[in-house]
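[User] Once you have settled down, look closely at the record that follows, and write a paragraph about the fold.
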Amino acid sequence: MKTVFKLSMGVFLIAVAIVGLLMVATRGDYRVLPLVIDDPALPSRVIAGINLHLRIVEGPPDTTTVIVLHGGPGGDFRSLQGLDALSDDYRIVYYDQRGAGLSQRVESDHLTLEGHVTELAGVIDHVSPHANPVLIGHSWGAILATSYLGRYPERIAGVVLIEPGFLNAAGRERWEERSRDYMSGLTYWREAVLTGFRAQHVDGPDLSAPDDFLIGHMVDVFVNHPHNPYHCGQGYTAPSWRFGAASSDILEAISPRDLDDIAERAADFSGHVMLMAGACNSWTGPELQRLHQSHFNDAEVVVVNDAGHNVIWDNPGVSLTAIRGFLSGITTH
């Protein structure tokens, strides 16, 4: 018994020493940007009782409003601001979704697909109460846009969907299976451990900051995995302000029935849909978006060369030309 006890104590002391060394070795100034509730200089609106980081780029009077939905869940609209160039003809609205980016953090029961659809409805009523807007959704934002379309098809003039990863339950299963390839291995887990220790040194500006720092960095590791085709081989360089850690669980929480409902209801929208894909992306790129095309009554697929998952950031010139062409054919009511 004494031998077992001594061995156990030895292992325990070694573990404590390793933890202590890692805590010291990972000390640093890890900054996390403040949220709208702490930084009054950030543009914001209260929608459905939640303070959202929301930015409007005004266009000509009485023009079409374009609402931009970022990816994630948990991301922000920073990398999509190349769409500002459209403001010579259109009014552009960006917002960080609840619990994400620089918007107010909320309890987990507010982080649902239903809550996000309700929030989007609130944003639409606030920024375009008398005319139907156009939606531009990237990745998760494209899934959200499609879900809204199926529920309120008469409220949207047209929609641009940039590389939704899936639009039904079977698609989610395939996405999750593939994603595990980029969230495993010695390098990934070493980075996860080190980032976990670094997160212990994050001192505010709010209680969510350490988790946001941790998950945000690991999302960056995921998208920059050398075998992840989200980029064209030079890394996933699209910038962000801050990740919302709690929001990242939304996709797993959506029931298979609700996911299939998204695809089934998409056909209720009679307007035009443009699916955009980066030519470099062999995962959620052109091939997958051509499969998604069948869910809609009137849809086209546009492939952007020299672009990965975030086509707006990777190749803004070609992307904006395609979106301008799409918008020119849309008439709001």
